[in-house]
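Review session, final week

We close the course with one last complete record, chosen because it touches almost every idea we covered. It is DinB family protein, a protein from Microbispora triticiradicis with 168 residues. Go through it on your own first, then we will talk.
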Amino acid sequence: MTVERIGPPSVAGEREMLRAFLDFHRATLALKCEGLSDEELRRTSMPPSTLSLLGLVRHMAEVERTWFRRVINKEDVPLVWSPEGDYQAAYDASGSTGAEAFTAWQAEVEHSRRIERAAESLDVTAYQPRWGEEVSLRLVMLHMMHEYARHNGHADLLREGVDGTVGV
């Protein structure tokens, strides 16, 4: 997998800016994983943590699925690796492969992009049961950037532990 990461524009409309920053963070996670074997992707940070790069990819697939498909699009789809709603469960990637996780993640990203493009505005709202309130598409996109940015920090440390690569 070859990853292309395009820097977000310095000047753009709100929606274009949100899309660009979210895609930048998505590409950053993919870059952190680029060129690693399944074994390296499954390498955990330190006991007792089950956190790995592959686990982060699985986790973000669940987060994309939840916010865009289940919340904004109101789809009745189950979670893949977090059946009880425990999103931390996706971190345990001990039995997973890179191909499986990246295929699922990329599919969820495409669903998210489709749902966002189809929305008439960033002011579209939907009920978020976990928070117990209505949320806008704007908030979802900002929240997703926050999720990726935080987890990309984890990915920095995990990748450095695998092969010494930093600053991707």
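Two points worth writing down before the exam:
The beta strands are 125-128, 133-136.
The mean pLDDT is 93.
Good luck, everyone.
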